[in-house]
């Protein structure tokens, strides 16, 4: 049984892989196959529900919070098989980002209120980090939250908010101390009900011709003080922990494996697979995907062992970005003169959206921290360069 894992399946893991593959063949809806961009919420809700009912919606969550508590090998097998089948990646904002943070830093009330609804998919979440003048330099954020009785009054703007116009709740970074000696020291993380009065949300059309992102405006929005995660003015530490989870998620081998399968379909249809130069490039990117799987596996193992990934998350994110963009370049090579067409390329094995994938891969080097910033972090914190 072919695999992109660097580990050999045990008998137990091989049985699990076969079970996952069989279940996907029977349960993955055809309308969810091969999406380059994120499928719309109305399609994702039913898929989320299927995974929840199967018990597979949160493989990395502990059982005490309703998760699968899968072994490392099981998590990797699921990533590989879901990618091979072309299954969409469920929203990471809740299950991959704020969920684990609440498990570690949230109050009992916050866990009881929010974690179960993340599992069922009843509530969608979005992340309020970036601002018009605080993207890569996130610590420069200016959205402020001023305490007024038992509520914070929030004013400001967030941008590039994934699914902001579909979500019901946001976890946001806000400035709660305007006079902090260091800009990182006056930031808090807060949970915001997006139905609260004073919030305006506008979708943003992107280079990939979708509206996955939004800009969010806060005008005297009153948020209960109890919605602070962790301690007031300690949000920067939580934000860095969450970004580790985000960058690992952005480098998920599931997306890379799915993309590689689409590339092969296209290459077989156009004859590019018979070109020895193209085939050598394909082999190289297959090795990149294998390396990506190994790095993500190592990171998952560190997290499960309660060890910090730290600046290593920047390398993980950079590796995932580079691999995706290499596959995007090869998509256009394989498509030849038809590579610039916006419509999907029809193949005997199903449609492949070469142009859409290429455009999607371009923005990978911006969100989650731009590639330039990731290189600077690696140079300073990993290599010790000035």
Mean pLDDT rating: 87
Side by side, the strands of the main sheet go 1-4-5-8
Shape-level CATH architecture of the largest domain: Up-down Bundle
User: What fraction strand?
Assistant: 5-15%
Number of strands: 8
Supply Rg. Answer: 21 Å
Number of continuous helical runs: 11
CATH superfamily of the largest domain: Butyryl-CoA Dehydrogenase, subunit A, domain 3
Biggest sheet details: 4 strands, mixed
Note the topology:
Layout: H1 11-27, H2 41-54, H3 72-85, H4 92-105, H5 108-120, E1 125-128, E2 144-148, E3 151-158, E4 169-175, E5 187-193, E6 199-204, E7 213-224, E8 228-229, H6 235-250, H7 253-270, H8 276-304, H9 312-335, H10 354-363, H11 371-382
Parallel strand pairs: 1-4
Antiparallel strand pairs: 2-3, 3-7, 4-5, 5-8, 6-7
Helix pairs in contact: 1-3, 3-7, 4-5, 4-6, 6-9, 7-8, 7-9, 8-9, 9-10, 9-11
Question: How would you sum up this structure, described in words?
Answer:
By secondary structure, the protein is α+β, with helices and mostly antiparallel strands. The protein folds into three domains: 11-90, Orthogonal Bundle (Butyryl-Coa Dehydrogenase, subunit A, domain 1), CATH 1.10.540; 124-234, Butyryl-CoA Dehydrogenase, subunit A, domain 2 (Beta Barrel); 251-382, Butyryl-CoA Dehydrogenase, subunit A, domain 3. 47% of the residues lie in helices and 13% in strands. It has helices at residues 11-27, 41-54, 72-85, 92-105, 108-120, 235-250, 253-270, 276-304, 312-335, 354-363, 371-382; strands at residues 125-128, 144-148, 151-158, 169-175, 187-193, 199-204, 213-224, 228-229. Helix 6 runs parallel beside helix 9 (312-335) and helix 7 runs antiparallel to helix 8. The mean pLDDT is 87.
